[in-house]
Amino acid sequence: MGAILEAKGVSAWYGLIQAVTEVDLQVEQGGVTALLGANGAGKTTTLRALCNMVRRSGTTTFDGVDISRRSTEDIVRMGVAHVPEGRGTFVALTVEENLKLAFHTRRDRAAAMRDMDLVFDYFPRLKERIRQQAGTLSGGEQQMLAIARALMLAPRLMLLDEPSFGLAPLIVQEIFRILRQINRDAKVSMLIVEQNAALALELADQVYLLETGSVVTSGPSDMVRNDEALRKAYLGY
Amino acid sequence: MEFFIQQVVAGLTSGAIYACVALGLVMIFVSTDHINFAQGEMAMFATYIAWALIDAGVPYWIAFGSTILIAFVGGLLIQRFILKPLENAPVLALVVCFIALLSIFNAMAGMIWSYTIKPFPSPFPALDLTGHGLVNVRQLGVVGVTLIMLGILTVFFRYTTLGLAMRAAAQNASSARLMGVRVSWMLALGWGLAAAIGATAGMLVAPLVFLDPNMMTGILVYGFAAALVGGIANPAGAVLGGFIVGVLENLVGSYVIGNELKLTFALAMVVGVLLFKPAGLFGRVIVKRV
Ligand SMILES: Nc1ncnc2c1ncn2[C@@H]1O[C@H](COP(=O)(O)OP(=O)(O)OP(=O)(O)O)[C@@H](O)[C@H]1O
Ligand SMILES: [Mg+2]
């Protein structure tokens, strides 16, 4: 079991301001890696750098293939689905249209149709709202839609940016239960950014702690969970 | 009464043309969020290409089809080579660029084909249908072509995944990229389609007003009025807006203010809509949670 995603010395900039410095990280084949850190630590920027949405340097390989210079669209088409911060809902499209967008990208229409059924098995609420304008969905439903949209791409790796953001605890639990299911059943590897560290540690097997754009600690999630000093210092609990 | 009906029919005919121009504007607005001031001159230039083809002996409908195709490719190239490098430029730079395109096309047409007006053939005979000079085949043809075009566009945007990808790219480019949509090609496609629609509009106008490099100048203002009345982001609204502007312009022109002030009337409509109903009469307000 090698790494499905490997980043080496990845840095990223907004204009002249460097937001991420020399980050190394890995996601195991079939594994879940959590990327934790305070507000402004550079978590979102790291995810953006991995799929070339910001100016960046360093090497990224996906499944052994160098993707450092590929366009975002190509990286997505190779099997990396990014569920962005803010959910990226196409507000004026219907729920169905949001999902069917994947039909444009994928060649295998029949399999894509089956994936749509699968997605509705995970998120029955979306099926009930299939003709509703996506902008009118609740926050939790929009987060489900964002995950569902990513799943429609039949990804091998999902990058999730704070899927719990702004949601009620019950919905958060539901979403994390579904994420775990997706990871187990659909064998989708995950790199997840979270503010809710306890929740992310439960799901993840590997953890990276980010502070002002650099990795300060990394290791198995058990290690972080059991290290009180580390938890108190970086995760605040 | 007869005069009134004649004016309405004539209004619908010119309305169909405004609708085409408006459709081109809507097309670019929907796919790129810009207003293309060169839309009219691009249409005029395409019409000259059609004229040159017909003049060289190409049958009308073949010339018609080829011109649409050439315009499509031309629009695509303009986006790839002129606008793509300006992707991150401020809006004002883009406006300047559109105005430059406008003058370049105008001057090129004048240079290549001269400023003397030329007759342009219509594929539809001016055959009277009612016996009272109320409606003729040519008028029906112009309206028909516009409606067919609207139909094609509606089906394209509503029922094809490519149309869906274009809408998504316009709404949220970065999110569209994350769905694997090649956004910059979608913009180019929008320009191609707009140019093709414009070419059709030009070929419908030319038989009515004669072909010359300034043929579209006034019509573009009516096209703007139509697009704004219908809602600049709504193709069906733009076509309806075209018909409304065409009919109103004719009626107001013949009964109220006289033909000389028609263009002023169109400008007044533009200002009125922008002041009182910026989303247009049929513009759909997008419900958004905040
Ligand atoms: N579009 C941008 N332009 C300029 N600076 C930015 C931009 N986005 C983020 N930054 C800066 O980059 C740094 C890292 O931001 P980033 O969004 O990656 O943090 P984060 O860890 O995701 O924080 P949060 O938990 O609040 O989402 C911050 O200092 C932020 O101000
Ligand atoms: Mg963030």
Rounded to the nearest angstrom, the distance between the terminal CA atoms of chain A is 33 Å
Rg over CA atoms of chain B: 19 Å
SS element count, helices of chain B: 11
CATH homology superfamily name of the largest domain in chain A: P-loop containing nucleotide triphosphate hydrolases
> Which assembly state applies to the chains in this document?
heterodimer
CATH fold-level topology of the largest domain in chain A: Rossmann fold
Share of residues in helices of chain A: 40-55%
Mean pLDDT of chain A: 93
**CATH architecture verdict of the largest domain in chain A:** 3-Layer(aba) Sandwich
Number of domains of chain B: 1
Can you name the CATH architecture of chain B? Orthogonal Bundle
Strand order of the largest sheet of chain A: 6-7-8-3-9-10
What share of residues are in beta strands of chain B?
under 5%
CATH fold group of chain B? ABC transporter involved in vitamin B12 uptake, BtuC
Beta content of chain A comes to 25-35%
Alpha-carbon Rg of chain A, integer: 17 Å
CATH classification class of the largest domain in chain A = Alpha Beta
Number of domains of chain A: 2
Helix fraction bin of chain B: over 70%
What is the SS-derived class of chain A?
alpha/beta
